[in-house]
Write a structure and sequence with these properties.
The chain is built from two helices and four strands, in the order ββαββα. It is of the alpha+beta class. The strands form two sheets. A two-stranded antiparallel ribbon has the order 1-2. A hairpin with a 6-residue loop joins strand 3 and strand 4. The protein starts with 8 loop residues before the first strand and ends with a helix.
């Protein structure tokens, strides 16, 4: 079952998204939150995910 394609973790908010691990479900949950803890130190906008901030900095700075 280790290599199963089963996705037993379902988002309780959007119900569309399913995931193989609880960690991936937790990561997805950030999309439904208004919390934006990752702020650009150069120009100020904030982002929900660190990866989005990283992409912003690569493109903008």
């Amino acid at each position: 079952m280790v290599h199963s394609n089963a996705k037993p973790y379902q988002c309780k908010i959007c119900r569309r998204a399913t995931f193989k691990s609880s960690q991936n479900l937790k990561h997805h949950g950030q999309t439904h939150s208004e919390v934006r803890p990752h702020e650009c130190p150069d120009c100020g906008p904030s982002f929900k995910r660190g990866s989005t901030l990283k992409r912003h900095r690569q493109v903008e700075h």
